[in-house]
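Continuing the series of single-chain predictions for the mutant panel. This is the parent chain; the variants come on the following pages.
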Amino acid sequence: MSTEKPVTAGHHDLTEIDFTTLFASSIHDIKNLLFMLLNSLDETICTVSTNDGDSNNTSSKLSLLKYNGQRINDKLIQMLALFSIAQERYQINIAYNSVEDFIEDMVIEAKPLLNARSITITGIVEDGLCWFFDKGIVAGIISNAVHNALNYAKSEIRINAYAKNEYLVVDVEDDGEGFPQHILQNGGTLTAINDANGKTGLGLYFASVSASLHSNKRKSGQIELHNGGKLDGAVFTLLLP
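Parent structure:
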């Protein structure tokens, strides 16, 4: 006769756990840990660049490590944001922002990673352009677009911002081979996550959902993808009404 007893976790009934909330909380904790790790990497890269005789090679390796960590952090932020939106907990913070200052901040943030890969980044903004948008969520969209471009760019990434047809238009373009056809098959739009081609498309889905949170005069924000542009590569376009 068996004397084995069911395994329990102390006095806790695991069936009472809300695993959706637990999942979101765990992602939040991991994101915070990654943030501290990335800050430490920044300090290490600065120290190596100052003191190491072979600083270029070492800094490049550390920057690549930071890039991979940043990509993980991006995905966690996207998952948390989508979870909050789905649960109707996300509080969008629309404010009047200087587009020039915003793009300048994005370029400054991206430069250390791109310099380590010998890729230049520039921002070109229409003079005096200001717009209403959620700075935090739009920064996430553009940052993800820049990191994607970094995977394929040969030597240059460019961010263009201008007003057109009552929309703020932000293009992130690179001089790579362009988007593959399976990404462009829906006209450069994405309405669901699909891993049929080995990638979930989480970043593009996050960008599409986040853009749609911005609305004005019956118009909603959206993203578009196409090939060409001034650098003859991939072009990610964010449109905000």
